[in-house]
Design brief:
Blueprint lengths: L4 H12 L5 H8 L3 H13 L19 E9 L4 H12 L4 E6 L7 E7 L2 H12 L5 E8 L16
Antiparallel strand pairs: 1-3, 1-4, 2-3
Helix pairs in contact: 2-3
Pfam families: AsnC_trans_reg, HTH_24
Keywords: DNA-binding, Transcription, Transcription regulation
Protein name: AsnC family transcriptional regulator
Length: about 160
C-alpha cells in the first residue's frame, strides 16, 4: 500500500490517540470526515492497522518487577522451538518473546511480576520446566528510559 502524507499523519495520530473521534482526526489532519474515515478503513483493511488496545498501568495493577530473561535451548530443532514458543505464549506474565541472535541465548523474554517471590515462582516452577530450556540469565529493569509502542511512519 502506497502511503501519502494524509495516511502517514492518520497513522501517527492513531498510534498516540486510538480513541480519537473521526471528526477530530479529520480536523487534525486537514481532511473532511468522509474521506478521512475511508482512509482509516483502507488502512485497517490492508492490515497496516492491526487493532486498537488500552494501555494499562502495571504498577497500579501491582506489577512492580520487570525482568528481561535470556533463555538458552538444549537443541535447535523446529519442534523444540515450537514447544517453547507455545509454552511461553500461555504465560500471562510474558509480555514479549523474541527469538534472537548475537547472544549466548536463543530467546529474550520480557516478563512482569508482582514482586521477587512471584518472579521466582514463575522462573523456577514454570519457565525452567519447559522442555528444552538449558540456561537462563535474568536482568532486572531498574527504570524505563524509553517506553513507546508507536512506529515511525515518516518517509519509507
Amino acid at each position: 500500500m502506497e502511503l501519502d502524507r494524509y495516511d502517514r499523519r492518520i497513522l501517527e495520530v492513531l498510534q498516540k490517540e486510538g480513541r480519537i473521534s473521526n471528526q477530530e482526526l479529520a480536523d487534525r489532519i486537514g481532511l473532511s470526515p468522509s474521506p478521512c474515515l475511508r482512509r482509516v478503513r483502507a488502512l485497517e483493511d490492508s492490515g497496516l492497522i492491526l487493532g486498537y488496545r488500552a494501555l494499562l498501568d502495571a504498577k497500579k495493577l501491582g506489577y512492580s518487577l520487570m525482568t528481561l530473561i535470556h533463555i538458552s535451548m538444549d537443541r535447535h530443532t523446529p519442534e523444540r522451538f515450537a514447544n517453547f514458543e507455545a509454552s511461553v505464549g500461555e504465560l500471562p506474565e510474558v509480555l514479549e518473546c523474541l527469538l534472537i541472535t548475537g547472544q549466548d541465548a536463543d530467546y529474550q523474554l520480557k516478563v512482569i511480576a508482582h514482586d521477587m517471590e512471584a518472579y521466582q515462582e514463575l522462573l523456577l516452577n514454570r519457565i525452567t520446566r519447559i522442555e528444552g530450556v538449558s540456561g537462563v540469565h535474568s536482568s532486572f529493569v531498574l527504570r524505563r528510559v524509553v517506553d513507546k509502542s508507536a512506529l515511525p511512519v515518516g518517509r519509507a
